[in-house]
Every structure is written in C-alpha cells, then in structure tokens.
Design brief:
It contains 15 helices and 23 strands. With about 500 residues, it is α+β, with helices and mostly antiparallel strands. It has 3 domains: about 260 residues, BirA Bifunctional Protein, domain 2; about 110 residues, Anticodon-binding domain (Rossmann fold, 3-Layer(aba) Sandwich); about 80 residues, 2-Layer Sandwich (Translation Initiation Factor IF3). Helix 3 packs antiparallel against helix 7. The radius of gyration is 27 Å and the shape is globular.
C-alpha cells in the first residue's frame, strides 16, 4: 500500500475516533475528584463561571431541580405551608443577635460595603440562611394563638463564601435551595413537623434520586448554629468513603423566639414564646446523585428525574430505506410522548450513530432506542439500558407497555445497586483499633458511643490527616439493640447510643 494511501486511511481512522470517542479522561475508581469535576461539565450540568466557586447551572441541571421542586412543593402545601419571598440582604446587627448562629456563618458571610463609589454607612450581609431575616417579622405578625402555626417556605438562593476548594453542587459559594421556617404554640407540634419534613427529604433521595439515605440526628458538634437539635438524611459515597449531609430539619426550640421576641398570647391570655423549626434541601441533591450513580461513561440518571427518559436514534445503512427508518423513529417518539414518556429524536445527520450513543450515554439518558432497516422489517425497536448496558428487542405493538416497565425497573434497580454498595461499606465496630482499621478502609462505621462532645472532638483530632478527619455522621433513628454494659469505642465509658462515623464532605 502506498505511503499516501496509508496516511489517508490512518487520517480517516483518527477522524472517526475523534468523532465517536467521548470517553472521560478520568476513571471513577482511580481519581474520583477529577472524574466528578469532568462529569458535571461533560454531561452539561454546569459550566464554570469567571468567579471561583460560582457555577452556571445548565438546563439539564435546572430541570432536575424543577422535578424535585414539583414533588416537594405540593407536599408541603398539603401541610399548609405557604410560599413567600424575603429580601436576600440582612443587617449584620440582626445576624449577631443570636451569637452561636452568627458564629456558625461568620467566616462565610459575604458583605456588601459599597454602592458605586460610595462606602455604605451600614454593611449588608447576603443571606447565608434566613432565620435572622424572617424572624423580626414573625414577631410582628404573631400576636395570639390564632396566628399559629405560621409556616412559610421560600425557594431562593443563598451565598456562603466557603474557604478552600469549592465543589460544584456539593460546596459552592452560591446555591439554590428551599428553606422552610415554622412557628408553633407547642414543642410537640414543632417536633412532629420536623419529622414529617424529614420523611419528604428521604423520599426525594430514595424515590426520585435513587440514593439510599439514613435518617438520624446530628451530634452537638454538627448541630445547626442556634438550634436545639438537627435531624438529617445522610448519604454515603462508597468510592470516597465519605458521608454527605443530604438535607436537614432544625429544631430551634425557643432560642430564636427569645432573641427576636416572637411571643403570643395563649388561650389563657398568658404571654409565651413560640416553638420554631427551620428546614431545607439544596442543589447538593444533584451532586450526591452524580457521585452515587455516575460511571466511566458519564452521568447515569434515574428515570424519574431525567428530562429525557428515552432517546430515539435512527441507524441508517447504505441503500436501505432511510426515509422509512426516519419515519419510524418519529412515530416512535410521538407514541411515547402521547403516553407521557419523555422521549426525543436525535435526527442530526452530521454525527454517526456511534457518536450519538456516546453523547447520550455521557448525559445519562436512561433508555436508548435504535431503529435500523432490520428493526423496520421486523416491526420492532432495539433498546439499550444506560444503568447496566442490557440490550433487547421490543415489538412495536408492546412498545409503550414495555418501555414503562423498563423505566420502573431501572429506577428500582439503580436504588437497589446503590443500597447494596452502601451497605457493603457499613462496618460495625466496638474498639478503637477496629475503628481506625475501618476508617482506613473508607468504611461507614457504626459504633457504640457515649454521646459526649469532648469525645467526638478527641476522635476528630486523633484521626486528622491529609485526607480529612473522622466525625459523627449521624445517630440513626433506627437504633440497633444496645446490650447492657456496652462501652463507648473511643472513651471506654458506658455507651448511650449507636452512631455512624466516617469522613464527610
């Protein structure tokens, strides 16, 4: 073969590879941090912004957020929660009214100090959370027991100017969230709501994002600044051996009511303080989903949150009935959409089918339908699952019914696989040596604990190294039996509860 002919062949092969190869340059098991950063950009969830720690949320990310919002908003309205909106600026003096609350945010608060060329007389903080923005007005609006309960929620953004390396979705300097703020006449009402909201958060993660979580309470060290206690849904990332706080409900007791004079006259005409909660989940949900389900081909989306559940791709062959194939693809999309299945057609003629396969795998679309001349002749479609790569043929007559079954199966399978991987990482220990060994193996550690702050701080200090320290992830509501005489793994004192430990995001 002549040299110029070989060069042309090699050039053609190179161009074909460049056209079809959309593989990630990092592998999830080998370099998780770089893999994650690459996936969220390559799958078109985010684009980096000119300012470090700020990210552009692209339509695919916003559509996931809107899906979660479409579930959660009607559920809280059933609980008579009303939506509202408060300004994003707060007087720093208001934030400092509750010292432990302010201290929890003081290093992350962004201040506006200038207007044009003029220095402002009073600096304004950009909200890191809205307790100190909203509660002065709760004091104004709540007078008597008939004004209670007052339950408000807002869908908004917050700014927390984090120190260190930001991570898209997980720890960014601005993020979207919802934040609920409730006031009740009794502690029992407040406690009941906190648990009811936490169950909704569990459903977001497990039923929509297919991410298993554990419901529990945070330790005193990790309790929200100004709260009596913090409840959490805690996820775990097996590849990194790190827990991730998924969403929280904070029982504020009467601490903020005292500082902001949120009082009411009860039925006996006695003046007393309200009991309060605050609760929220954020776009961190999306990051947890990517971390748990993504693979070396890119994003893997659970069908419930995928804006495109089925992508239909024509597979033309030379001298075949191209128009017939295209018409079959269009009809397939039409039939699926009429059945309320989110389907789209990729009819681009400037990319090969192989290139399209790689692109839609990168974006995590749950199902791919391919239709070629043989499928046309056999009155069928070829279907490929994104979650496990399984391929099958489905007759046109059974298309809608079988696709619906597949989507349900994919959703459940993704949760089952994620739960199995998470559960394989859980290790029960009783001694300090067992704890250290499990931590080095990147486990989620379930250990008997004396529930003392000084002991947790000591564990954190002893385990601090270049990849982070161990901390309490949560004490689960579902407590295993604690045999009488069980000792705390770290202090040797009598254990009071079982608690999950590990490194955390």
């Amino acid at each position: 073969m002549a040299a110029n002919t070989i060069a042309k062949v090699q050039s053609g092969e190179k161009n074909k590879k460049e056209e079809t190869d959309l593989k990630l340059s990092n592998r999830k098991d080998e370099n998780f941090g770089d893999w994650y950063s690459e996936v969220v950009v390559s799958a078109e969830l985010i684009e980096h912004y000119d300012i470090s720690g700020l990210y552009i949320l692209r339509p695919s990310a916003v559509e996931i957020w809107e899906t979660l919002q479409a579930f959660f908003d009607p559920e809280i309205k059933k609980m008579n929660v009303k939506n509202c909106y408060f300004p994003m600026f707060v007087l720093e003096s208001h934030m400092k009214k509750k010292k432990d609350h302010y201290d929890s945010f003081s290093q992350e608060v962004a201040l506006v100090t200038k207007s044009g060329e003029s220095t402002m007389d009073i600096p304004l903080a950009i909200r890191p959370s809205s307790e100190t923005i909203m509660y002065p007005y709760y004091s104004k609006w709540i007078r008597g027991h008939r004004d209670l309960p007052l339950k408000l929620n807002q869908w908004c953004n917050v700014v927390r100017w984090v120190i260190g390396d930001p991570t898209p979705f997980i720890r960014s300097r601005e993020f979207l969230w919802q934040e609920g703020h409730s006031a009740f006449a009794t502690e029992a009402e407040a406690h009941a709501e906190a648990l009811e909201i936490l169950e909704l958060y569990r459903r977001i993660y497990e039923e929509y994002l297919a991410v298993p979580v554990i419901k529990g309470t945070k330790s005193e060290v990790d309790t929200f600044g100004g709260a009596v206690s913090t409840n959490t849904v805690e996820a775990f990332i097996p590849n990194t051996g790190r827990g991730i706080q998924g969403a929280t409900t904070h029982c504020l007791g009467q601490k903020f009511a005292e500082k902001f004079e949120v009082n009411f006259e009860d039925e006996k005409r006695d003046k007393t303080m309200v009991w309060q909660n605050s609760w929220g989940y954020s776009t961190r949900t999306i990051g947890a989903m990517v971390m748990v389900h993504g693979d070396d081909k890119g994003l893997v989306l659970p069908p419930k949150v995928a804006s495109i559940q089925v992508i239909v791709i024509p597979v033309p062959y030379k001298d075949a009935d191209t128009q017939g194939t295209n018409d079959a693809c269009e009809l397939t999309v039409k039939i699926l959409c009429e059945a309320k299945i989110r389907a789209e057609l990729d009819s681009r003629d400037n990319h090969s089918p192989e290139r399209k396969y790689s692109e839609w795998e990168m974006k995590g679309v749950p199902l791919r339908i391919e239709i070629g001349p043989n499928d046309l002749a056999n009155k069928q479609v070829s279907v490929v699952r994104r979650d496990n790569g399984a391929k099958m043929d489905i007759g046109n007559a059974d298309l809608v019914e079988e696709i619906k079954k597949l989507l349900i199966n994919i959703q459940q399978n993704m949760f089952n696989v994620a739960k199995q991987k998470r559960d394989e990482c859980i290790q029960v220990i009783h001694t300090w040596d067992e704890f250290v060994e499990a931590l080095n193996q990147r486990k989620m550690i379930l250990a008997p604990w004396c529930d003392e702050k000084v002991v947790e701080l000591d564990v954190t200090e002893k385990t601090t190294n270049e990849i982070g320290a161990a901390k309490v992830l949560c004490s689960p509501f579902d407590q295993p039996e604690l045999v009488e005489g069980t000792k705390c793994f770290a202090s040797g004192k009598p254990a009071k509860k079982w608690t999950y430990w590990g490194r955390s995001y």
